[in-house]
Amino acid sequence: MTMQKKAIQTNHILEGVRYEIRGELAHRAMELERQGYEIISLNIGNPGLFGYRTPETMRLAMIENLGQSEAYCHQKGIFPAREAVVMQQQDRGVFDVTAEDVFIGNGVSECIDFVLRALLNSGDELLVPSPDYPLWSAAVSLNHGQPVYYNCLPENEFQPDPGEIRSLITPRTRGIVLINPNNPTGAVYRRELLEEVVQIAEQHQLIIFADEIYDQMLYGEARHVPLATLVHDTLCATFNGLSKIYRACGYRVGWVAFSGDRENAGDYLHAVELLASLRLCANVPGQWAVQTALGGYQSVRALTEPGGRLYQSRQAVIEGVANSSYLELRPPDGAMYAFPSVNTDRIPGFSDQRFALELLEKKHVLIAPGSSFNVPYRNHFRITTLPDERKMGVVFERMEELLDSLAP
To answer: What pLDDT score was predicted for residue 1?
Structure first.
């Protein structure tokens, strides 16, 4: 007698989780590469894939301390790394942080997960930007919460509207997420706007989650205002790490630093430490690079100034859009992404998903559709600005050829 086998059922909570940046399009790109095609992958901000090197001093710091990296460290991370984060915060005007307020994680991703797991009960709400980095939405859903989106509209230069944020607050709202500089749009938020959002959060006693992983990746006159410098009467959690500014994605070192009103957050912070303890500790070797990274020469500035590689690649994107008959762009002021749109008057019925698939299949360029970032419109897409300007020129030539074929 043959026993009928049952398909393994997945957790229903995954129905609300999306991460298309590494989804079906990325899988198809890998298939095409196995067939011998050269794919220009613009879907992920992964500096090492484009020839950016981690500063040598960071590599040496890690190598020299390998002998001290074989045992578990403290659940919050090694003291020199946490103290380096404290010193950086103090240098930026945040004076109420100690090493006890800093948790090192296996990338910012892990930190986001355990700070939300410690906070959210079923049905609790977190205000999240639209567009957002989809890990935030996924982490809220996976921890039984409900992401509630506030719009950062293209016509408002992708800046939040404090009035809308205020209108979305309910008794179930637990916090507000701000991603600044923003991924995917590259927007850098104005100080006056941040002050309004902080005032709203303090009035309603909401935790502010400040994702500032791109804080030093700025162009032109853009200036980043650390949210922790503005928050006093509620809790602020600031996220940062080595992946982007220091081009060390593979080290998997990120952190969260708590500031503001910690007096009324004792139980919550204890829960965060409990979760940090359950996973024992973060990757130890990479933590030895933190002190060197934060205290040394900030080489990212040479990349973002005129003549620097990131600056020139960004210029190539701006020029590529300007030369297009179909594309529009709010130039990014920060981060390593651009979020162009397609003029739907020129191409009625445009679909970001269909365009991304055809661009991959016909032109061998991989992008992330705008709808991957939890927006209601379907005419945007995200590209990373990491390739050099020559390759960026090739990308826009191929895009224009495909858009020509789609136009009526």
So the answer is: 61
For the entire predicted model, the pTM comes to 0.94
Closest to 338 measured CA to CA, from 346, 347, 329: 329
Q: How far apart are CA 81 and CA 255, in angstroms?
A: 10
Closest CA to 103 of 232, 287, 323: 287
pLDDT in tens, 215-251: 999 999 999 999 999 999 999 999 999 999 999 999 9
Question: Which superfamily does 13-52+302-406 belong to?
Answer: Aspartate Aminotransferase, domain 1 (3.90.1150.10)
Point out which residues pair with 129 in neighbouring strands: 150
Between CA 20 and CA 353 the distance in angstroms is: 10
3-state secondary structure of 291: helix
Domain spans of the chain, in order of start: 13-52+302-406, 56-295
Beta strands in 37-182 (DSSP E): 40-41, 102-105, 125-130, 146-151, 173-179
In the predicted model, what is the mean pLDDT of the chain?
95
Using a pLDDT cut of 90, give the percent of the chain over it. 92
Cα dist from 357 to 178, 267, 367, whole Å = 30, 48, 9
What fold, for 56-295? Aspartate Aminotransferase; domain 2 (3.40.640)
Q: In this predicted model, what pLDDT tens digit does every residue of 304-331 receive, in sequence order?
A: 999 999 999 999 999 999 999 999 999 9
247 phi, psi to nearest 5 deg: 55, 45
Q: Angle at Cα 151 formed by Cα 149 and Cα 156, nearest 5°?
A: 170
- Tens digits of residue pLDDT in 358-401: 999 999 999 999 999 999 999 999 999 999 999 999 999 999 99
Radius of gyration of the chain (CA): 22
Evaluate whether 387 touches 44 at the Cβ level (below 8 Å). no
